[in-house]
Specification:
Layout: H1 2-6, E1 8-9, H2 11-18, H3 22-31, E2 37-39, E3 47-51, H4 52-60
Antiparallel strand pairs: 1-3, 2-3
Helix pairs in contact: 2-3
GO molecular function, one term: DNA binding
Pfam families: HTH_17 (PF12728)
Protein name: Helix-turn-helix domain-containing protein
């Protein structure tokens, strides 16, 4: 199970790797550009986790498809 958790990234980690703001990553998730797992939350913002493989697929895609 620890290996599975290591393969999940936070919105902040994804934003840092893509060199964009957290808000942009959240917008991509909500619009369906980026697949994410929704976590239960009690705060203001919805918590998400993104699979590392999803990020790698996005990075490998041609720029025009983003």
């Amino acid at each position: 199970m620890a290996n599975e958790e290591a393969d999940l990234l936070t919105v902040g980690e994804v934003a840092k790797q893509l060199r964009v703001d957290d808000t942009t990553v959240r917008r991509w998730i909500k619009s369906g550009v980026l697949e994410a797992i929704s976590l239960p939350h009690s705060g203001i913002r919805q918590a998400y986790r993104i699979r590392r493989s999803t990020l790698e697929t996005l990075l490998a895609a041609p720029p025009s498809s983003i």
